[in-house]
Predict the 3D structure of the following.
Amino acid sequence: MRNPEPDSPVLSIGGRLPGAASGAPITRLFESLRPDLVRFAHWLARDRALAEDIVQESLLRAWRYRDALKDPAAARPWLLTIVRREHARMYERKRLELVPLEDIADTYADPKAADTEDDLFALRHGIMRLPLEYREPLVLQVLGGFSTEEIAQELQLSSTAVLTRLFRARNKLRVLCGMAGVPDGAGSEAGQP
Amino acid sequence: MNCEQARLLIGADPRSSAAQLAAHLGVCPACTQLREEMLAFETRIERALQQPPDLARVRSRRQLPQWREWALAASVLVGLAAVLGLWLLRPSDTLAHDIVAHVQHEPDSWLSAHEVNAQGIGDALHGAGVALDLTSDKITYAQSCWFHGHYVPHLVVQTAQGPATVLILRHEQVPGARSFHEAGLNGVIVPAAAGRGSIAVLAHGAGVEAVAHQMQQDVRWLPEPP
């Protein structure tokens, strides 16, 4: 399922992929996945503009090393992995300007709320408030469709550690939404490779 | 698989189809109920993740309703007015502070209920070169006190609002009336009508301005002793 992600940097070429004008199939495939990638990056970076930058860099990188994509059907997880790593690289390269939590986190839901737009609104902001260590595996699992083992490999964690983080992420969201927390018998995140 | 392991797996991956979990759910109603809850919650999480938050909506939500903005502005103005009022009512200078200190130093002056006779009032006024056209107000305390290097009449006048202390300050000039509030006392210092000197009135309650105004009319300066 996985394709190796190249490490070499690529140059920005003005917001469009090479070959976009000519309608190359690989470019069309990448562009068709762009909304998913931006959504994924947005959840990681918590900022739309930054997410756009991350995706642009990721698509350029992917296009440059498109020959590494052996199976077009695996393009989505391959690109999501590149986006995740590009996001991590951005944090390593520079200290990002953080979005103030109060701007994204007017979050506490009305415990009485049903599954309404307001409820979703609170839940979205609850997810945004999760620390990256919880938010990232949750987004990889739910949005990306990655298995526990794949997330563990990507994050260089043990499967147990990933399960623990996923459990705690959902538990925090439950509490945030006024539900009872599930007793945490997960213990520590042992077994990290 | 025991309940603890099942809870961890359900919480981490509600859609897990692991055989061990399925076997446990077959015999554990509590974990089955938890899984149903988590599956319902998972649907909400999936829906929530389809659309990252719109920060503009958050900011608009964070804006206060208009009436609350006005209320906030009004409360700020009230606060500023209160601060300004306290600033204006503070002892305006050492004179006001010293007057308050002097009155507090003679607390018995407030307690007297007996009207001082004309002789007693005359004795208090004489040394300061002051004459007083007595009004209907009852004077229950009259002393000549040493204040700022001079003897000054120290009177307590009974009014409808309670006792009020009056200090007649022939040697203290003030450019205009000024009020102050200190140590629970309301005070005012006004220029004497005779063109020099001043009159200070203090009370625990209201009405000091009225007493001061009355005193401005009643006080006369006598020729200073050589």
The radius of gyration of chain A is 18 Å. Chain A touches chain B through 42 residues (CB under 8 Å).
